[in-house]
Specification:
The chain is α+β, with helices and mostly antiparallel strands. It contains seven helices and eight strands, in the order βββββααααβββααα. Strand 4 and strand 5 form a beta hairpin. The structure holds zinc ion (ZN). Keywords: DNA damage, DNA recombination, DNA repair. InterPro entries: ARFGAP/RecO, DNA_rep/recomb_RecO_N, NA-bd_OB-fold, RecO, RecO_C.
């Protein structure tokens, strides 16, 4: 079997037996893929700093019937800015964990790869990591086909210009205007500005979405709503969400500063 190379993000790595590790990547070539790194625990020289979560690597896999083997793995981007900041690191954990939960193995999704790679890079530099996480989660839902259309009210057909309040329900797959809010018990409320911003963000090229800024309330509402959907959908709770909740409510690390009132600003 020949070795095929791909750029990839390291999602996680676990020890296996005496000397090996099993590494999970999200790659350009294969999407989500798990592979055995033979001897990775014994010889640190062979794979120098290559299996740190959130790192971008160039990986060479020898494909086998059961589990591929890692033949080479070279660090491309270690995201040091993320590693030195616990809150940014925790948000990176949320991006990685939702990627693990929502993507099937061995299904290439180059658009999702660009979203993940650029999202992790932006998390290291953006003044508001929560905003980056919210944009990532909403766009990921769209890429994976789990987000309803935000073009118009799914119940009465009103367009964005014709209503000032909107409700997005991921569980019901509905985006509806405020006229139905008495009947629609579940979902996140969005004002016209936030709804229009999401609509514009969903139409922008994936690597360019990070300049969009949601208000703080929408940021946290969207993160909560997508996390709840992921947990319902997979039947597993998200550890990273619980960690973030503790960090943002605990005394030791301040919550990210509130976002600008401006809806869209340049990077
Ligand atoms: Zn309506």
């Amino acid at each position: 079997m020949m070795v095929v190379e791909s750029e990839a993000v390291v999602l996680c790595a676990q020890d296996y037996g005496e000397s090996d590790r099993i590494v999970t990547f999200f790659s350009v070539e294969w999407g989500l893929v798990r592979a055995m790194a033979k001897g990775a625990r014994r010889s640190r020289k062979r794979f120098v700093h290559a299996f740190e979560p959130n790192s971008v690597v160039q990986v060479g896999l020898r494909q086998r019937r059961a589990l591929s083997w890692v033949e080479s793995c070279r660090l491309v981007e270690g995201h040091l800015a993320l590693r030195s900041d616990p809150l940014r690191w925790a948000y990176a954990g949320l991006l990685v964990e939702t990627t693990l939960r929502l993507n099937p193995e061995n299904l290439p999704n180059p658009t999702y790869y660009v979203l993940l790679r650029s999202g992790l890079a932006r998390l290291g530099t953006d003044r508001d990591p929560a905003n980056v996480a919210a944009l990532f989660l909403v766009r990921a839902m769209r890429i994976l086909g789990a987000l309803p259309s935000l073009e118009r009210c799914c119940q009465c057909g009103r367009t964005m210009a014709e209503a000032s309040l909107w409700r997005l329900s991921l569980a019901a797959g509905r985006f509806s205007c405020g006229a139905h809010s008495a009947a629609d018990k579940e979902g996140i409320d969005l004002d016209k500005g936030a709804a229009a911003l999401l609509q514009a963000m969903l139409q922008a090229p994936v690597e360019k979405i990070w300049r969009f800024r949601l208000r703080k309330r929408a940021v946290h509402g969207l993160i909560k709503a997508v996390c709840a959907w992921v947990e319902d959908h997979t039947g597993q709770s998200l550890k990273s969400r619980r960690l973030l909740h503790r960090m943002e409510t605990g005394p030791e690390i301040p919550a990210p500063s509130s976002t600008s009132a401006a809806l869209v600003v340049s990077p």
